[in-house]
Design brief:
The complex is a heterodimer. By secondary structure, chain A is α/β, with parallel strands linked by helices. Chain A is built from six helices and ten strands, in the order βββαββαβαααβαβββ. The longest helix of chain A has 18 residues. The chains are: A alpha/beta, B alpha+beta. The structure holds adenosine-5'-triphosphate and magnesium ion.
Chain lengths: 236, 401
C-alpha cells in the first residue's frame, strides 16, 4: 500500500437533470491516510450517503477526481474497467445494520469475499478465522448470524470489510444500533485495524458519543465538505 | 467457492421440502396421467395381441369389431378357410355388458370363442394363470382376473349360469373392461336373446300367420320359429395366415372376392389408437398442459418469493463484488433443486399410486425421462422471472439512504 490512502478532489454529484436535478455533492475534498480513521458528519440530506455511494463505486459521480493509493480510479469518468472487482478488492463496507448473509455461518460470511476473488476455500477460511480472532469473535466462528448479538454481528461485518485487505473501508453509521460501551469497542477495533492493516477508514456518523474519538473530522453541509481538526480529539 | 444455492437450501430446508413435496404430488398426478394414456394404448395392443389374429374380417364398410359394431353371417369363415394362404379362420363375438356376480355385477366384455383345436384357434385366450380352457360347448367361462371372479365361481350372462373354469391376466377390452370368454353358441344366443315374454309373443304371432301355419305343410311352422329364434351372426372372423403369407396381399384378396372389409394388425392398431382412444388422448394432453402450467406457476411463485426475501442479501452480495452470473446461478440452482425434489417425490407417488387405479396405468421409462427434462425446463424457465428481478437489484440499496 502506498502512502496515499484515499484522496478526493472537487467531487460533484448531480441526481437527475433539468428542473428536477439535485446537486447532492457540490464540492467534496477529502484525504484519508493509510492507518487513519476519520469521521464524516453532516445533517440529514447533506450528501453523506451519496458520497459513500460514489466512493463505493455503486453510483457514478458527475465530475471530480478520486485516487486510491497511487491509482486514479475516477477523473471525470471511471478509470477502472471492472467496478465489481474494484469493490471486491479495494473497498471494504461496514453498514449500520450488519447485513450478514443469513444462510452462511460466521466464517463463510467473512470468507465469501476472498472466495469470490478466487482464493481457495481453505485459505479464505483461514484468513477469515485470523480476522475473527483479531476481533475476538472466533468462538462464534461456526454460528449462524441470527444467533449473534448486535455487537458480535457488527464485529463480523467489520471482519468482512477487512478480509480482502482493502486500502479503504467505508463505514456507514457502524455504531448506530449499539450501546455506548459496544460503540466505543467498535471504534477502538476500527482504529486498531486501520493501524494494523494500513487501511484508510471513513466513518459516517451522527453518534455524539463517538465523535470525540476522531482525530480528524469532515463536516459536510449542502454537498460541501469542511475539514475540522479539533484540539483534544486524540483517541485515547 | 462455496455453493450459495446449496447453503440457502440447507438453511431454509423446511420451506424447500414442503414446496418440493407439494410440487411432487402435482408431478405424480402428471406422470399418472401420462401412464393412463400409455395404459390405454397398451390395453389396445394387448387386445390385438391376445386375439392371436393376423387379419380381422368384418362387415363391409365398418370399423368393426372394436370401434364400430359389425355383423357377419356365421358361415363366412368356411369360405375364408377355403382360400389359399389362410391357416385358420374363427368366428368371434364381442359384447360389453354387466355380468352378474352373485349379488352384484361387473362390467365386462363377453367374448364368444369358436370351438376348434386348442392353441391354434384365434380368439382364445393365449395363456391362463389358473384353471383350464373351456372344454364343453356350453356354460363354461374363462374370466380375466381383473373381473374379480375366481375358479369355480358361477356367473350369469342373461338367463344362463356359467362356471368359471379358467383365469387370465391382462385380457381387457380397449376401454379396460376385463374379458369373459364363453362358447360362441352361448355368446350368439346372449347377444340376441329375447326375454321369455318376447319369445312367446313372437311365436304366437307366427302361429297366427296363415302363411306360415299351413295345415298342408307339416313342419313349416317349426322351421320358421327355429329360424326366428336362432342367431346366425357374429361380429368378426379372426384369421391367421400360413407362414410366409403377406397380410396385405391376403387382406386384398379377401376384400376383392368376398366383398368384406379386412384389417391387418397394423390397420387395426391404427383404428384403436387413432380413432377409439383419440379423444381420450386429447383429453389427457389437455390435462398435461394444464398441470405443466400449474407446476410452472408454483415453481415461479415460490422461487420469486424466496428471492424477494433475499433482496437485501442480494444487494449486499452485489456490493461486495459478486458477479451477476453467480447470483443468477444461485437462483436457478434453487429452482432446479426444487424440481428435482418434486420429481423424485412425484415419481415415487406415481409408482405407488399406479397399481391402485382401476384401469391399467403404464409408467414408461421414456415418459419418466421426458417428464424429468420437462420439469427441469419448467423450473429453469420459471426461475427467469426471479433472476430478472434479482439482476435489477441495485447494489447501492445495500448502502441505503
Ligand atoms: N437517487 C436520488 N435521486 C435524487 N435525489 C437524491 C437521490 N438520493 C439522494 N438524493 C438527494 O441528494 C441529497 C443528499 O442525499 P443523501 O442521501 O446523500 O443524504 P444523507 O446525508 O445521507 O442524509 P441522511 O443523514 O438523512 O441519510 C438529498 O437532498 C437527497 O434528497
Ligand atoms: Mg444517508
Amino acid at each position: 500500500m502506498s502512502g496515499h490512502g484515499i484522496r478526493i478532489e472537487g467531487l460533484k454529484k448531480r441526481y437527475g437533470s433539468g428542473d428536477t436535478a439535485v446537486e447532492a455533492l457540490k464540492r467534496v475534498d477529502m484525504q484519508v491516510a493509510p492507518g487513519e480513521v476519520v469521521g464524516l458528519i453532516g445533517p440529514s440530506g447533506s450528501g453523506k450517503s451519496t458520497l459513500l455511494k460514489c466512493l463505493g463505486a455503486v453510483i457514478d459521480p458527475t465530475a471530480g477526481r478520486m485516487t486510491l493509493g497511487d491509482e486514479t480510479i475516477y477523473e471525470d469518468g471511471w478509470k477502472v474497467r471492472d467496478l465489481r472487482a474494484l469493490r471486491r478488492d479495494k473497498i471494504g463496507f461496514v453498514f449500520q445494520a450488519p447485513y450478514l448473509i443469513p444462510f452462511l455461518d460466521v466464517t463463510d460470511n467473512v470468507a465469501l469475499l476472498p472466495m469470490l476473488a478466487g482464493v481457495a476455500n481453505s485459505e479464505a477460511r483461514q484468513r477469515a478465522l485470523d480476522l475473527l480472532t483479531a476481533l475476538d469473535v472466533q468462538h462464534r466462528a461456526k454460528a449462524m448470524p441470527s444467533r449473534l448479538s448486535g455487537g458480535e454481528q457488527q464485529r463480523v461485518a467489520i471482519a468482512r470489510g477487512l478480509v480482502n485487505r482493502p486500502p479503504v473501508i467505508l463505514a456507514d453509521e457502524p455504531t448506530a444500533p449499539l450501546d455506548s460501551e459496544r460503540a466505543m469497542a467498535v471504534i477502538r477495533i476500527l482504529n486498531e485495524m486501520a493501524r494494523k492493516y494500513e487501511t484508510a477508514i471513513i466513518v459516517v456518523t451522527h453518534d455524539e458519543k463517538i465523535i470525540p474519538t476522531f482525530k480528524r473530522i469532515y463536516h459536510i453541509r449542502d454537498g460541501v465538505t469542511h475539514e475540522e481538526t479539533g484540539e483534544g480529539r486524540a483517541f485515547a | 467457492m462455496i455453493s450459495l444455492a446449496g447453503r440457502d437450501i440447507l438453511h431454509a430446508w423446511g420451506k424447500f421440502v414442503f414446496t418440493g413435496v407439494g410440487l411432487g404430488l402435482l408431478i405424480g398426478v402428471t406422470l399418472v396421467m401420462a401412464g393412463v394414456y400409455r395404459g390405454m394404448v397398451d390395453d389396445g395392443r394387448a387386445l390385438l395381441d391376445n386375439s392371436g389374429a393376423d387379419l380381422w374380417v368384418v362387415q363391409q364398410d365398418t370399423l368393426g369389431p372394436y370401434a364400430e359394431s359389425s355383423s357377419l353371417n356365421d358361415d363366412v369363415y368356411r369360405t375364408l378357410l377355403a382360400m389359399p394362404g389362410i391357416a385358420q379362420a374363427a368366428n368371434v363375438t364381442y359384447l360389453t355388458m354387466q355380468v352378474r356376480k352373485e349379488a352384484s355385477d361387473v362390467r365386462a366384455m363377453v367374448v364368444g370363442i369358436a370351438p376348434g383345436p386348442l392353441g391354434s384357434t384365434p380368439g382364445w385366450p393365449p395363456y391362463l394363470v389358473a384353471g383350464r380352457q373351456i372344454a364343453r360347448a356350453h356354460y363354461e367361462a374363462v374370466a380375466d382376473i381383473a373381473s374379480g371372479f375366481r375358479l369355480g365361481d358361477s356367473l350369469r350372462i342373461r338367463r344362463n349360469q356359467y362356471t368359471v373354469v379358467g383365469l387370465t391376466r391382462r385380457m381387457v377390452s380397449s376401454s379396460g373392461d376385463p374379458m369373459v370368454f364363453i362358447p360362441l353358441k352361448d355368446a350368439q344366443e346372449a347377444q340376441f336373446l329375447k326375454g321369455n315374454d318376447a319369445i312367446w309373443q313372437s311365436r304366437r304371432r307366427t302361429e297366427a300367420n296363415p302363411a306360415f301355419n299351413r295345415p298342408g305343410v307339416p313342419g313349416l311352422l317349426d322351421a320358421v320359429i327355429a329360424s326366428q329364434s336362432a342367431n346366425a351372426f357374429v361380429n368378426a372372423v379372426l384369421v391367421t395366415l400360413k407362414p410366409g403369407q403377406a397380410p396385405d396381399a391376403a387382406a386384398e384378396s379377401i376384400r376383392r372376392w368376398k366383398r368384406l372389409t379386412v384389417y391387418t394388425r397394423a390397420q387395426m392398431e391404427g383404428i384403436l389408437v387413432g380413432k377409439l382412444i383419440a379423444t381420450s388422448s386429447k383429453q389427457i394432453s389437455m390435462f398435461l398442459v394444464i398441470l405443466a402450467v400449474v407446476s410452472a406457476a408454483i415453481v415461479a411463485f415460490i422461487i420469486y418469493t424466496l428471492t424477494m426475501d433475499k433482496i437485501r442479501e442480494i444487494a449486499v452480495l452485489k456490493l461486495i463484488g459478486t458477479r451477476n452470473r453467480t447470483i443468477a446461478g444461485m437462483i436457478m440452482q434453487q429452482a432446479v433443486a426444487l424440481g428435482v425434489i418434486g420429481f423424485v417425490v412425484g415419481k415415487i407417488t406415481a409408482t405407488f399410486a399406479a397399481p391402485m387405479f382401476p384401469k391399467y396405468v403404464l409408467l414408461m421409462p421414456l415418459d419418466t425421462v421426458l417428464g424429468f427434462f420437462a420439469v427441469l425446463t419448467i423450473c429453469v424457465l420459471a426461475s427467469l422471472i426471479a433472476i430478472r428481478m434479482a439482476l435489477k437489484v441495485d447494489p447501492a440499496e445495500a448502502i441505503g439512504g
